[in-house]
Amino acid sequence: MKLSESEENYIKSIYNLQIKTEKVNTNSLAVFLNTSPASITDMLKKLKSKKLLEYKKYYGFRLNEAGNTEALKIIRRHRLWEFFLVAKLGMEWDKVHDIAEELEHVSSPELINRLDAYLGKPKTDPHGDPIPDERGKVVLLKQKPLKDLAMKQNAIVSSVSSQGHEIMEMLNHYGIGIGSQIKVLKSFEFDGSLQIKIARKPECIISGMAAQNIYVYDN
Amino acid sequence: MKLSESEENYIKSIYNLQIKTEKVNTNSLAVFLNTSPASITDMLKKLKSKKLLEYKKYYGFRLNEAGNTEALKIIRRHRLWEFFLVAKLGMEWDKVHDIAEELEHVSSPELINRLDAYLGKPKTDPHGDPIPDERGKVVLLKQKPLKDLAMKQNAIVSSVSSQGHEIMEMLNHYGIGIGSQIKVLKSFEFDGSLQIKIARKPECIISGMAAQNIYVYDN
DNA sequence: AAATAAATTTAGACAAATCTAAAAATAATT
DNA sequence: AATTATTTTTAGATTTGTCTAAATTTATTT
Ligand SMILES: [Mn+2]
Ligand SMILES: [Mn+2]
Ligand SMILES: [Mn+2]
Ligand SMILES: [Mn+2]
User: A99, A109, A173, B172: which has the highest count of C-beta atoms within 10 A?
Assistant: First the structure.
């Protein structure tokens, strides 16, 4: 299936939102893609006509099997390029998303499979997100938002929400990265902020917003 | 200057044709880009309005200084990616052009300069064409078509016309590559074909067409 | 159950990039 | 110099992706 850059961006966004929120709606997709709701409706019709999406007017929409497959191909390309930019070109993890957003649309399978092999078939991208394999299989980590981590439980930072570089900029400042050992010392009900301890770093406090967008797995 | 993918393809094509033929005309550009002459005229107007092109109706057109600068940026990206695909991913030199044709439109300067450094600031792409440096400077080789090489003169293959993979496919078959030592043994006036000797290969005969698209420098 | 609010879709417009067919300008032949 | 041929441009359509404003449907309040 040959898809335009726009179609690919929509498909990938729907996929990514479906993971986090189960039910995606027109308005939230419009906000996410920074377009108007009317444009979303237009594209939904097109993706339906290409049989990548189940869609009933006013009722809702959802990628079907074919749509999912396409989404995973795009995500594979995106994450492999992000890995390349960090591992080979030495770019910062908070700068690679926008470039990968363009590179992901170059769709030669030979290119991507060679890139994958060249990079040593990495399992996750620089933000901790899993890279689908050639057949579209993706291993989901048993992770949870830091805000749901039990008090004083040791855990490892596994990923961060990767839309936008702002969170990574901040984590760089705190010295938090993928793989950091982390523990919650205190939770403030007032605003959901957390006092935390990163291995070999001084204690610090992060906002509830941050605690929702940092993911960890138990250790 | 932010340019669309189409604008970039037109600019690059005009630049490449201007090198070979001095005067480019609407029809030949249309053939080269596989579009209609009407589309060429439309784009000429747009590029003129963006001040990248000198253009007078019916009279002719030519990239100006700004247009040249843009062309060299695109060509730099194209050739660096081609080098990457061959040197790092191990692709064949006759397969990389089409992929680079897409990658060249990803225009982050940081990406390209890091890629350049990572590849060791290569001077030429896999087809022997020079890679412009960051400031757009390009070192032209003193090369000539193989058909103009004096009889029995030792020479080195320096580049091949790189539009389309067909010539490279054929050269692979003959065992000719960039850097091959080559000598013309005999020239047939009838059809311009040449009997040649490649170092450590058996003698063979190539067509006049081929002899026009293989470039060499004296040795 | 009405009324109001929110979400979604339609109607109609626009810019970009392309096309075909016709017109206009230039070049080449007789 | 006229005629014919070639090249180039214009006129008018089409497709894709987008928008705003209005209409429609669904959800929420009173
Ligand atoms: Mn993208
Ligand atoms: Mn990522
Ligand atoms: Mn291109
Ligand atoms: Mn090349």
Answer: A99
